[in-house]
UniProtKB/TrEMBL annotation:
<dbReference type="InterPro" id="IPR019888">
    <property type="entry name" value="Tscrpt_reg_AsnC-like"/>
</dbReference>
<feature type="compositionally biased region" description="Basic residues">
    <location>
        <begin position="162"/>
        <end position="174"/>
    </location>
</feature>
<dbReference type="Pfam" id="PF01037">
    <property type="entry name" value="AsnC_trans_reg"/>
</dbReference>
<dbReference type="InterPro" id="IPR011008">
    <property type="entry name" value="Dimeric_a/b-barrel"/>
</dbReference>
<dbReference type="InterPro" id="IPR000485">
    <property type="entry name" value="AsnC-type_HTH_dom"/>
</dbReference>
<protein>
    <submittedName>
        <fullName>Lrp/AsnC family transcriptional regulator</fullName>
    </submittedName>
</protein>
<dbReference type="InterPro" id="IPR019887">
    <property type="entry name" value="Tscrpt_reg_AsnC/Lrp_C"/>
</dbReference>
<keyword id="KW-0804">Transcription</keyword>
<feature type="region of interest" description="Disordered">
    <location>
        <begin position="143"/>
        <end position="174"/>
    </location>
</feature>
<dbReference type="InterPro" id="IPR036390">
    <property type="entry name" value="WH_DNA-bd_sf"/>
</dbReference>
<dbReference type="Pfam" id="PF13404">
    <property type="entry name" value="HTH_AsnC-type"/>
</dbReference>
<feature type="domain" description="HTH asnC-type">
    <location>
        <begin position="5"/>
        <end position="66"/>
    </location>
</feature>
<dbReference type="InterPro" id="IPR011991">
    <property type="entry name" value="ArsR-like_HTH"/>
</dbReference>
<keyword id="KW-0238">DNA-binding</keyword>
<keyword id="KW-0805">Transcription regulation</keyword>
<dbReference type="InterPro" id="IPR036388">
    <property type="entry name" value="WH-like_DNA-bd_sf"/>
</dbReference>
Amino acid sequence: MAIELDAHDHRILAELQADARLPMAELGRRVHLSQPAVTERVRKLEDAGVILGYRAVLDAGKLGYGIRAVIRIGNTDEASLLQALERSPEVLTAHGVTGEDSWIFEIAVRDVAHLREVLSRLCQQTPTSTAIILRTVREHAPLQPLPTTPAAPTLAAEQRPGMKKPRRGGASRG
């Protein structure tokens, strides 16, 4: 369920998604609030579950992971798959999905031999489809809060079509 956010909250979320390490004083300057006010708003956003955490974004290639891939997994025994998932630190994301596939995983592996090892661990006797990621054009894009739907404007009596504007300041004519 979405919560009500104002313009300051939207700016705070945008700034923190761009740089979660901003000191509260600098964040306050950027969103035109005092440090105590912005600190309180961030705490409320955390308490409401809007901000789930802060993390470092790592370069998989510099850590030795030369291949990233997407694995689509067909119908399988969920309990076994979840156990294999617990033993597979190579899995970066795991989504249960609708459609022909039951699961979609994104993984990072050293090389093709490592890819084969992970596939055999995750997908024994299960139909899969694997695609190696050649390039990434968008990743970790900032999430924009949805705009709140404003109430439909109502027309005042003097603005309704076909209605004459009442006379102001004079005696009524007969």
